[in-house]
Amino acid sequence: MTDTTARLAPDATGTVLRRAGMASFMGTFVEWFDYASYGFLATVIAVVFIPATDARTALIATYAVFALSFIVRPIGGIIWGHFGDRIGRQKTLSLSIFIMSAATFVIAFLPTYDMIGLWAVGLLLATRLVQGFAASGEYAGAASFLAEYAPDDKRGMLTCLVPAGEAAGLLAASLFVAILHGVLTVEQLHSWGWRLPFLMALPLGYVGAYIRRKLDETPHFKALERAQHVPQTPVIELMTNHRREVLIAFGGTLLNAVGFYLVLSYMPTYLAAELGVSETAAFIGSTVSLAVYLGSIFVMGALSDRIGRKKVLMACSALFAILTVPMFAMLSSAAFTGLISPGFLVILGIWSLFGALLSMNGGTLPTFLCELFPTRVRFSGFALSFNSANALFGGTAPLIATWLIGATGSKLAPAWFLVVAAIVTFAAIAISTAGKAGSALQRD
Q1: What sign has the CA pseudo-torsion 35, 39, 44, 47?
Q2: Domain coordinates of the chain in residue numbers?
């Protein structure tokens, strides 16, 4: 297949490209608002759904349910990747957002442990498994979709709309939960307040699905269809001809998986449960960190267009390996005495720096993974490697961090976990030949 067969139409950088960007952003925003609401309400859910026990055990159990939902993500990655590479990105993404929104909406109506006992935990786990299955097709599909619309010299910046949508969903969920903690009493929050974010899933999901259904399929996939080069069994082809790329993508995703869930999802719980920071202050800090992350993503994406994805990702990994332990040590030593205390300002500064560092990875990795695989297996390769890394080390990161602190007695234990992830990612990116500035997407 020649380069011209998959080249963008002349108007694709205008109206069509804007619509593609909006579809990718909105869909990812909706799915991650739904997904993040559970993580930010972990301490409340621990009380509502887990049998009465000590706080750490209940929190570990809650994060175990969170982690178990990731079990289905590699399987979901294979299934969504198969259909994404067989029938197209647009149809697959429209279905994934519908499933995610429906499962999240159901959580709002689940009975609690006091109502039906352990059945409540089982129902919660079932809905989380459906959420995990739906999420496994979202990030890879949305990134592939947008990367196949974007021109080569702006792909990094435009594909950043996917992690930006993810971060915006997290930010919206964090703000919503912070408001709940601020305006509701503990009794109200435990009784009915925790259900409110999940009730929003259905209308938000309808908006996201509507936008996606109105958009056409990508030029790259259309070119495959015209040339009758659509693969019959994408995953088999992937594992036969692209095993090295899958391993590189898995290792390259490790820092993103661990860092994302530790810095942007687990950190409010870490500060509240381990360092004695108030829940309101923890969510304010989360909001600031997410805002920094979101604001920095496009800068990093544009930088990767100029100097290449590989250089940005390796620099990010090196900085995490060097700075994580000292930054966690500063967090642990900061004396929190209130929202206007010097200790809280230190926490905000460190947390914001973590957000900025993570944006180097989050703003660059989706484009790197898209460029690693050819069009025929791009969705499958991205989804399988990304979801496998997140299933093994991302979704389990809050659980592992909580367990490590209890097992070692050290509040720095999560930092060392993040350092190991950074070293592995540095090595994986270093041996890759992808990620050069301005390079075209691989074709057939």
Answers
A1: positive
A2: 11-430
CA distance 443 to 221: 10
Instruction: Give the model confidence (pLDDT) of 212-264 as tens digits.
Output: 777 788 888 888 888 888 888 999 999 999 999 999 999 999 999 999 888 87
Quick one: which of 196, 73, 91, 194 has its CA closest to 133?
73
Q: Which amino acid is at 260?
A: F
Query: Where does residue 349 rank: exposed (0-12), middle (13-18), buried (19+ CB within 10 A)?
Result: middle
pLDDT tens digit string along 179-211? 888 888 888 988 899 899 888 888 887 777 777
Helices (DSSP H) in 184-307: which residue ranges? 186-191, 196-199, 201-213, 219-226, 234-241, 243-259, 267-274, 279-307
Pull the structure tokens for residue 205.
Answer: 């999901």
Helix (H/G/I), strand (E/B), else coil: 102: helix
- Superfamily of the domain at 11-430: MFS general substrate transporter like domains (1.20.1250.20)
C-beta of residue 297 within 8 angstroms of C-beta of residue 163: yes
Query: pLDDT tens digits for 13-43?
Result: 567 777 778 878 887 887 778 777 877 787 7
CA distance linking residue 75 with residue 252, whole number of Å:
20
Helix residue ranges per DSSP H, 308-393? 309-333, 342-362, 365-372, 378-389
